[in-house]
Amino acid sequence: MTPFRVLGAAVILFASLGIPEASARTPYDGYWSVVIYTQRGTCQPAYRSGVSIVNGHVRGGGGAANVYGRVNRRGSVSVVVRTGAQSARGSGRLGRRAGSGRWSGSGPAGRCSGRWVAQRR
Q1: Residue 91 belongs to a domain with what CATH number?
Q2: Residue 102's pLDDT is what?
């Protein structure tokens, strides 16, 4: 798996950037399928990954990436992903069944950005 592929897959794993902490089960907890689309840069054009949300904290993506994520009670999502010299940030909104947002990342090969969509499983 290329570093930007890991980065792109993990970018939807939502990290806290000023979003209130979730301390109890949220309406968004469960398993989600996420597709990341690259719209600018040389990253992989599209990638699908599964994630789970537990008490508002996002888990998944796997591999060497460090993923920090959170979704608040209103569905606002934010993520930070780091792997080696690469990093990415993403944000968006989840509904009860689906969600979407934007992401951007950078590393030795340059910058990439795009959008993501999610479906509850």
Answers
A1: 2.40.128.120
A2: 97
Residue 76 phi/psi, 5-degree rounding, is -70, 135
pLDDT of residue 19: 39
What stretches in the chain show pLDDT beneath 50?
A: 1-3, 6-7, 9-23
Beta carbons of 118 and 14 less than 8 angstroms apart: no
Domain count, the chain: 1
Long-range contacts of 105-108 (CB under 8 A, 24+ apart): 105/4, 105/7, 105/8, 105/11, 105/43, 105/81, 107/3, 107/4, 107/7
Domain that holds residue 88: 3-120
